[in-house]
């Protein structure tokens, strides 16, 4: 296993999991989804979690998001920040315009109306949807809807972004351009001194190699960290570059070996 930048339990981590175990159900029906997973994500780091289907990736993300409670171990999110969450489905409010969707978190945060308007415009510009504020979600493509969801998550002004297969339902071209946008946005935040920490779940190893500073591979159920590797490929990256392909090949080999051991 390659070395990590942070040691589990380090106080400076943006997200720290220490020996996290999750068991669903009880007795004979109990399912151990995660088994003593320790992982530190440094502020501003982009970590991709990969693993076979059902290995506990979404469970881990939901625990970090506070949507569920651990059965053992502990999770700390730096400065007690509330992470922003993004899923495969954009989950926009269909009756609201694009602008009003992005405004929801700002309203919840109690921002005055004038500030909200300016911030919505800024966020929509960030995801290249400045001209679409008055449209409704059904008028947009899948990729555009996912960009609205990203803008709405960013409106939370959170330093931690949790993404669960956010681009899994998109075609390859659209996914490509969203990778570019996410990388640009993330690089910009880090360069501006307002680090954005990303924990990104995917079963697409290429996508992980395209995006991550570090890839963490979970074993088949129960999920344990079995391998991790730094992705020392300069940015901006291309998903079809030989460097990204080489990282993806290494992780795919290990994932295959793991799936082969378990038969799923
Ligand atoms: N609420 C629940 N109750 C019982 N079992 C659950 C629950 N949620 C998840 N599980 C089980 O825990 C295991 C891990 O599920 P999880 O969804 O976290 O895996 P995953 O790695 O995200 O899978 P996939 O890649 O297929 O989305 C699976 O065996 C799943 O059936």
TrEMBL record:
UniProt xrefs under Pfam families: ABC_tran
UniProt source species: Asanoa hainanensis
InterPro entries: AAA+_ATPase, ABC_transporter-like_ATP-bd, ABC_transporter-like_CS, ABC_transporter_ATP-bind, P-loop_NTPase
Gene3D superfamilies: P-loop containing nucleotide triphosphate hydrolases
Domain spans labelled ABC transporter: 15-247
The keyword Transferase appears for this protein: no
Protein name: NitT/TauT family transport system ATP-binding protein
SMART domains named among the record's database cross-references: AAA
MF (Gene Ontology): ATP binding; ATP hydrolysis activity
Keyword annotations of the record: ATP-binding, Nucleotide-binding, Transport
Keyword ATP-binding among record annotations: yes
